[in-house]
Amino acid sequence: MSPNPVLGVFLSWLAGLSAASFYLGFRGVKGWAWETYWLVGGLFSWIIAPWGLALTMTSDLVAVLREAPAASLFWACAFGVLWGFGGLTFGLTMRYLGMSLGMALVLGLTAAFGTLLPPIFRGQFVTQVLGTRSGLVILAGVAVCLTGIAFAGLAGVSKERELSDEQKRTSIKEFSLKRGVAVALFSGVMSACFAYGLAAGDPIKQITVQHGTPVLWQGLPVLVVVLVGGFLTNFIWCVILNVRNHTGHQYFQSSGVPMLPNYFFSAVAGTTWYMQFFFYTMGETQMGAFRFSSWTLHMASIIIFSTLWGIALKEWKGVGTRTRWLVALSLFVLVASTVIVGYGNYLGAAGSR
Protein backbone atom coordinates (compact mmCIF):
# COMPACT_ATOMS: atom_id res chain seq x y z
CA MET A 1 0.00 0.00 0.00
CA SER A 2 1.45 3.37 -1.05
CA PRO A 3 1.81 6.08 1.61
CA ASN A 4 -1.07 8.56 1.82
CA PRO A 5 0.01 11.63 3.85
CA VAL A 6 -3.49 13.17 3.73
CA LEU A 7 -4.94 10.07 5.38
CA GLY A 8 -1.99 10.06 7.78
CA VAL A 9 -2.72 13.63 8.91
CA PHE A 10 -6.42 12.80 9.34
CA LEU A 11 -5.65 9.75 11.47
CA SER A 12 -3.20 11.82 13.53
CA TRP A 13 -5.98 14.31 14.19
CA LEU A 14 -8.28 11.50 15.33
CA ALA A 15 -5.49 10.34 17.63
CA GLY A 16 -5.11 13.85 19.00
CA LEU A 17 -8.84 14.17 19.60
CA SER A 18 -8.84 10.91 21.55
CA ALA A 19 -5.86 11.95 23.66
CA ALA A 20 -7.31 15.39 24.39
CA SER A 21 -10.68 13.95 25.36
CA PHE A 22 -9.82 10.97 27.56
CA TYR A 23 -9.56 12.90 30.85
CA LEU A 24 -13.16 14.05 30.48
CA GLY A 25 -14.27 10.52 31.40
CA PHE A 26 -12.59 10.83 34.79
CA ARG A 27 -14.64 13.95 35.52
CA GLY A 28 -17.63 11.64 35.94
CA VAL A 29 -15.93 9.64 38.72
CA LYS A 30 -17.20 10.47 42.23
CA GLY A 31 -15.72 9.61 45.61
CA TRP A 32 -12.60 7.78 44.40
CA ALA A 33 -9.01 8.83 45.02
CA TRP A 34 -6.87 9.67 42.01
CA GLU A 35 -4.83 6.46 42.30
CA THR A 36 -7.99 4.34 42.27
CA TYR A 37 -9.62 5.71 39.14
CA TRP A 38 -6.25 6.08 37.39
CA LEU A 39 -5.48 2.38 37.83
CA VAL A 40 -8.97 1.23 36.84
CA GLY A 41 -8.84 3.39 33.71
CA GLY A 42 -5.28 2.26 33.06
CA LEU A 43 -6.29 -1.39 33.09
CA PHE A 44 -8.37 -0.63 30.01
CA SER A 45 -5.71 1.68 28.51
CA TRP A 46 -2.72 -0.60 28.87
CA ILE A 47 -4.07 -4.16 28.95
CA ILE A 48 -7.69 -4.77 27.91
CA ALA A 49 -7.96 -2.47 24.86
CA PRO A 50 -4.46 -3.16 23.42
CA TRP A 51 -4.72 -6.93 23.72
CA GLY A 52 -8.35 -7.04 22.64
CA LEU A 53 -7.81 -5.06 19.44
CA ALA A 54 -4.46 -6.68 18.60
CA LEU A 55 -5.93 -10.17 18.96
CA THR A 56 -8.90 -9.17 16.82
CA MET A 57 -7.22 -7.18 14.06
CA THR A 58 -3.79 -8.76 13.60
CA SER A 59 -2.68 -12.27 12.61
CA ASP A 60 -1.11 -14.75 15.03
CA LEU A 61 -0.34 -12.21 17.76
CA VAL A 62 1.12 -14.71 20.22
CA ALA A 63 3.25 -16.36 17.53
CA VAL A 64 4.49 -12.95 16.35
CA LEU A 65 5.59 -12.01 19.86
CA ARG A 66 7.36 -15.36 20.26
CA GLU A 67 9.30 -14.82 17.02
CA ALA A 68 10.22 -11.23 17.82
CA PRO A 69 13.90 -10.55 18.67
CA ALA A 70 14.50 -10.49 22.41
CA ALA A 71 16.28 -7.13 22.12
CA SER A 72 13.29 -5.55 20.40
CA LEU A 73 10.87 -6.86 23.03
CA PHE A 74 13.16 -5.73 25.86
CA TRP A 75 13.69 -2.18 24.63
CA ALA A 76 10.06 -1.68 23.62
CA CYS A 77 8.99 -2.77 27.11
CA ALA A 78 11.79 -0.84 28.85
CA PHE A 79 10.89 2.40 27.10
CA GLY A 80 7.31 1.65 28.06
CA VAL A 81 8.37 1.49 31.72
CA LEU A 82 10.09 4.88 31.39
CA TRP A 83 7.10 6.30 29.56
CA GLY A 84 4.99 5.04 32.47
CA PHE A 85 6.62 7.63 34.72
CA GLY A 86 5.61 10.29 32.23
CA GLY A 87 2.06 8.95 32.11
CA LEU A 88 1.80 9.00 35.89
CA THR A 89 2.94 12.58 36.23
CA PHE A 90 0.89 13.61 33.18
CA GLY A 91 -2.26 12.94 35.18
CA LEU A 92 -0.90 15.06 38.02
CA THR A 93 -0.16 17.87 35.56
CA MET A 94 -3.84 17.96 34.58
CA ARG A 95 -4.75 18.29 38.25
CA TYR A 96 -2.42 21.22 38.88
CA LEU A 97 -2.56 23.15 35.60
CA GLY A 98 -5.75 22.13 33.79
CA MET A 99 -6.14 20.64 30.32
CA SER A 100 -4.95 23.63 28.28
CA LEU A 101 -1.75 24.72 30.01
CA GLY A 102 -0.90 21.26 31.36
CA MET A 103 -0.96 19.59 27.97
CA ALA A 104 0.90 22.47 26.30
CA LEU A 105 3.89 22.25 28.63
CA VAL A 106 4.12 18.47 28.71
CA LEU A 107 3.60 17.96 25.01
CA GLY A 108 6.07 20.68 24.02
CA LEU A 109 8.94 18.67 25.47
CA THR A 110 7.45 15.40 24.29
CA ALA A 111 7.13 16.74 20.73
CA ALA A 112 10.75 17.87 20.59
CA PHE A 113 12.32 14.74 22.05
CA GLY A 114 9.86 12.24 20.59
CA THR A 115 10.06 13.57 17.02
CA LEU A 116 13.75 14.14 16.52
CA LEU A 117 15.42 11.33 18.45
CA PRO A 118 13.85 8.28 16.68
CA PRO A 119 15.40 9.16 13.27
CA ILE A 120 18.67 9.83 15.06
CA PHE A 121 18.31 6.43 16.75
CA ARG A 122 17.72 4.79 13.36
CA GLY A 123 20.69 6.63 11.78
CA GLN A 124 18.40 8.43 9.29
CA PHE A 125 18.51 12.03 10.52
CA VAL A 126 21.31 13.30 8.27
CA THR A 127 20.34 11.44 5.10
CA GLN A 128 16.52 11.56 5.22
CA VAL A 129 15.87 14.73 7.21
CA LEU A 130 18.73 17.17 6.61
CA GLY A 131 19.61 15.74 3.22
CA THR A 132 16.22 16.04 1.49
CA ARG A 133 13.84 18.85 0.59
CA SER A 134 10.89 16.99 2.08
CA GLY A 135 12.83 16.31 5.28
CA LEU A 136 13.71 20.01 5.67
CA VAL A 137 10.06 20.99 5.15
CA ILE A 138 9.05 18.54 7.86
CA LEU A 139 11.78 19.92 10.14
CA ALA A 140 10.37 23.41 9.56
CA GLY A 141 6.94 22.08 10.51
CA VAL A 142 8.39 20.73 13.76
CA ALA A 143 9.85 24.18 14.50
CA VAL A 144 6.49 25.82 13.79
CA CYS A 145 4.81 23.28 16.09
CA LEU A 146 7.18 24.12 18.94
CA THR A 147 6.47 27.81 18.33
CA GLY A 148 2.75 27.15 18.66
CA ILE A 149 3.36 25.25 21.87
CA ALA A 150 5.37 28.21 23.17
CA PHE A 151 2.43 30.51 22.48
CA ALA A 152 0.16 28.11 24.37
CA GLY A 153 2.56 28.23 27.30
CA LEU A 154 2.66 32.04 27.19
CA ALA A 155 -1.13 32.06 27.25
CA GLY A 156 -1.01 29.98 30.43
CA VAL A 157 1.51 32.32 32.06
CA SER A 158 -0.63 35.31 31.06
CA LYS A 159 -3.66 33.62 32.61
CA GLU A 160 -1.69 33.02 35.80
CA ARG A 161 -0.93 36.73 36.11
CA GLU A 162 -4.46 37.91 35.35
CA LEU A 163 -6.64 35.67 37.51
CA SER A 164 -6.90 35.51 41.27
CA ASP A 165 -6.31 32.21 43.07
CA GLU A 166 -10.06 31.93 43.65
CA GLN A 167 -10.81 32.38 39.94
CA LYS A 168 -8.20 29.77 38.94
CA ARG A 169 -9.65 27.21 41.29
CA THR A 170 -13.15 27.73 39.96
CA SER A 171 -12.31 25.43 37.03
CA ILE A 172 -9.11 23.80 38.38
CA LYS A 173 -9.58 22.98 42.08
CA GLU A 174 -5.93 22.14 42.80
CA PHE A 175 -4.31 24.82 40.61
CA SER A 176 -0.61 25.29 41.43
CA LEU A 177 1.70 26.79 38.80
CA LYS A 178 5.04 26.00 40.46
CA ARG A 179 4.15 22.43 41.33
CA GLY A 180 2.47 21.91 37.96
CA VAL A 181 5.43 23.19 35.92
CA ALA A 182 7.90 20.99 37.81
CA VAL A 183 5.75 17.91 37.23
CA ALA A 184 5.18 18.88 33.58
CA LEU A 185 8.93 19.10 32.84
CA PHE A 186 9.56 15.60 34.17
CA SER A 187 6.46 14.22 32.47
CA GLY A 188 7.37 15.72 29.10
CA VAL A 189 10.81 14.15 28.96
CA MET A 190 9.63 10.73 30.15
CA SER A 191 6.58 10.74 27.87
CA ALA A 192 8.83 11.01 24.82
CA CYS A 193 10.06 7.48 25.59
CA PHE A 194 6.87 6.16 24.02
CA ALA A 195 8.16 7.18 20.60
CA TYR A 196 11.42 5.36 21.31
CA GLY A 197 9.47 2.25 22.31
CA LEU A 198 7.61 2.30 18.99
CA ALA A 199 10.90 2.71 17.12
CA ALA A 200 12.43 -0.21 19.04
CA GLY A 201 9.46 -2.31 17.95
CA ASP A 202 10.16 -1.98 14.20
CA PRO A 203 11.19 -5.67 13.88
CA ILE A 204 7.86 -6.72 15.45
CA LYS A 205 6.01 -4.76 12.76
CA GLN A 206 7.90 -6.59 10.03
CA ILE A 207 7.12 -9.99 11.55
CA THR A 208 3.40 -9.31 11.97
CA VAL A 209 3.13 -8.17 8.33
CA GLN A 210 4.85 -11.43 7.27
CA HIS A 211 2.13 -13.29 9.20
CA GLY A 212 -0.56 -11.54 7.16
CA THR A 213 -1.44 -8.50 9.24
CA PRO A 214 -2.51 -5.53 7.06
CA VAL A 215 0.13 -2.79 6.95
CA LEU A 216 -2.34 -0.31 8.45
CA TRP A 217 -2.46 -2.30 11.71
CA GLN A 218 1.16 -3.42 11.95
CA GLY A 219 1.77 -1.19 14.97
CA LEU A 220 -0.82 -2.89 17.21
CA PRO A 221 1.47 -5.76 18.39
CA VAL A 222 4.14 -3.20 19.31
CA LEU A 223 1.62 -1.28 21.41
CA VAL A 224 0.92 -4.46 23.37
CA VAL A 225 4.59 -4.68 24.38
CA VAL A 226 5.17 -0.98 25.10
CA LEU A 227 2.00 -0.67 27.15
CA VAL A 228 2.84 -3.70 29.29
CA GLY A 229 5.87 -1.70 30.43
CA GLY A 230 3.70 1.34 31.08
CA PHE A 231 1.24 -0.76 33.04
CA LEU A 232 3.98 -2.05 35.36
CA THR A 233 5.06 1.46 36.36
CA ASN A 234 1.54 2.75 36.91
CA PHE A 235 0.34 -0.38 38.70
CA ILE A 236 3.16 -0.34 41.23
CA TRP A 237 2.79 3.36 41.98
CA CYS A 238 -1.00 3.28 42.27
CA VAL A 239 -0.89 0.29 44.62
CA ILE A 240 1.71 2.10 46.75
CA LEU A 241 -0.65 5.10 46.97
CA ASN A 242 -3.60 2.81 47.74
CA VAL A 243 -1.70 1.37 50.71
CA ARG A 244 -0.31 4.72 51.87
CA ASN A 245 -3.64 6.54 51.62
CA HIS A 246 -5.78 3.59 52.74
CA THR A 247 -7.83 3.75 49.53
CA GLY A 248 -7.58 0.12 48.42
CA HIS A 249 -11.12 -0.59 49.63
CA GLN A 250 -12.49 1.79 47.00
CA TYR A 251 -12.15 -0.89 44.29
CA PHE A 252 -14.73 -3.03 46.05
CA GLN A 253 -17.13 -0.91 48.04
CA SER A 254 -17.32 2.63 49.41
CA SER A 255 -20.28 3.98 51.31
CA GLY A 256 -22.25 6.46 49.24
CA VAL A 257 -19.99 6.03 46.19
CA PRO A 258 -21.59 5.14 42.80
CA MET A 259 -19.45 2.07 42.08
CA LEU A 260 -20.90 1.02 38.71
CA PRO A 261 -20.80 4.56 37.21
CA ASN A 262 -17.24 4.99 38.49
CA TYR A 263 -16.09 1.81 36.77
CA PHE A 264 -17.97 2.82 33.63
CA PHE A 265 -16.48 6.32 33.40
CA SER A 266 -12.99 5.02 34.20
CA ALA A 267 -13.34 2.38 31.47
CA VAL A 268 -14.50 5.03 28.97
CA ALA A 269 -11.57 7.27 29.89
CA GLY A 270 -9.05 4.43 29.63
CA THR A 271 -10.35 3.09 26.32
CA THR A 272 -10.49 6.60 24.85
CA TRP A 273 -6.88 7.11 25.90
CA TYR A 274 -5.79 3.94 24.11
CA MET A 275 -7.58 4.96 20.91
CA GLN A 276 -5.04 7.75 20.43
CA PHE A 277 -2.33 5.19 19.73
CA PHE A 278 -4.66 2.94 17.80
CA PHE A 279 -5.15 5.82 15.33
CA TYR A 280 -1.56 7.04 15.71
CA THR A 281 0.04 3.77 14.61
CA MET A 282 -2.35 3.65 11.65
CA GLY A 283 -1.42 7.20 10.65
CA GLU A 284 2.28 6.44 11.00
CA THR A 285 2.02 3.79 8.28
CA GLN A 286 0.88 6.48 5.83
CA MET A 287 3.95 8.68 6.30
CA GLY A 288 6.41 6.51 4.41
CA ALA A 289 10.06 7.22 5.09
CA PHE A 290 9.15 10.20 7.27
CA ARG A 291 7.00 8.37 9.78
CA PHE A 292 8.89 10.05 12.64
CA SER A 293 6.97 13.24 11.78
CA SER A 294 3.75 11.56 12.93
CA TRP A 295 4.81 12.35 16.49
CA THR A 296 4.77 16.10 15.77
CA LEU A 297 1.32 15.82 14.16
CA HIS A 298 0.11 13.88 17.17
CA MET A 299 1.41 16.39 19.72
CA ALA A 300 0.08 19.38 17.76
CA SER A 301 -3.39 17.89 17.37
CA ILE A 302 -3.57 16.99 21.07
CA ILE A 303 -2.85 20.58 22.04
CA ILE A 304 -5.32 21.93 19.50
CA PHE A 305 -8.16 19.78 20.80
CA SER A 306 -7.19 20.13 24.47
CA THR A 307 -7.20 23.91 24.07
CA LEU A 308 -10.65 23.75 22.48
CA TRP A 309 -11.82 21.58 25.37
CA GLY A 310 -10.31 24.06 27.80
CA ILE A 311 -12.33 26.84 26.17
CA ALA A 312 -15.50 24.73 26.28
CA LEU A 313 -14.93 23.93 29.97
CA LYS A 314 -14.38 27.64 30.72
CA GLU A 315 -10.78 27.22 31.89
CA TRP A 316 -10.04 30.54 30.14
CA LYS A 317 -13.07 32.36 31.50
CA GLY A 318 -12.26 35.84 32.80
CA VAL A 319 -8.91 36.26 31.04
CA GLY A 320 -8.01 39.46 29.22
CA THR A 321 -7.65 40.29 25.55
CA ARG A 322 -3.91 39.57 25.46
CA THR A 323 -4.41 36.03 26.76
CA ARG A 324 -7.26 35.36 24.36
CA TRP A 325 -5.09 36.46 21.43
CA LEU A 326 -2.27 34.18 22.59
CA VAL A 327 -4.67 31.23 22.75
CA ALA A 328 -5.99 32.01 19.26
CA LEU A 329 -2.44 32.47 17.92
CA SER A 330 -1.31 29.15 19.39
CA LEU A 331 -4.21 27.36 17.71
CA PHE A 332 -3.48 29.01 14.34
CA VAL A 333 0.25 28.20 14.48
CA LEU A 334 -0.35 24.60 15.54
CA VAL A 335 -2.83 24.01 12.73
CA ALA A 336 -0.30 25.55 10.33
CA SER A 337 2.38 23.17 11.62
CA THR A 338 0.24 20.13 10.79
CA VAL A 339 -0.26 21.49 7.26
CA ILE A 340 3.49 22.03 6.82
CA VAL A 341 4.39 18.57 8.14
CA GLY A 342 1.70 17.02 5.95
CA TYR A 343 3.04 18.87 2.90
CA GLY A 344 6.57 17.67 3.65
CA ASN A 345 5.32 14.09 3.74
CA TYR A 346 3.44 14.70 0.48
CA LEU A 347 6.67 15.80 -1.17
CA GLY A 348 8.38 12.67 0.09
CA ALA A 349 5.57 10.41 -1.13
CA ALA A 350 5.56 12.15 -4.52
CA GLY A 351 9.27 11.50 -4.90
CA SER A 352 10.40 15.12 -4.54
CA ARG A 353 13.53 14.54 -2.51
Taking all residues together, what is the mean pLDDT?
Answer: 82
Helix percentage: over 70%
Name the beta content range. under 5%
The number of domains is 1
Structural class estimated from helices and strands: mainly alpha
* Tally of helical segments: 14
Helix-strand pattern: HHHHHHHHHHHHHH
| Structural shape | globular
Low-confidence stretches: none
Distance between the termini: 20 Å
- Total DSSP E strands: 0
Radius of gyration: 20 Å
Largest sheet, in brief, is:
none
Would you kindly provide a written description of the structure presented here, covering whatever features stand out?
By secondary structure, the protein is mainly alpha-helical. It has one domain (5-350). It is built from 14 helices and no strands. Helix 4 packs across helix 13. The two termini are 20 Å apart. The mean pLDDT is 82.
In short:
This protein is mainly α and 353 residues long. Helix content is 80%, strand content 0%.
Element layout with pairings:
Layout (H helix, E strand, L loop, with lengths): L4 H22 L7 H24 L3 H7 L2 H52 L3 H6 L2 H30 L2 H7 L5 H15 L1 H8 L1 H9 L9 H26 L13 H26 L9 H19 L8 H30 L3
Which features characterize this protein?
mainly alpha; about 350 residues; 14 helices
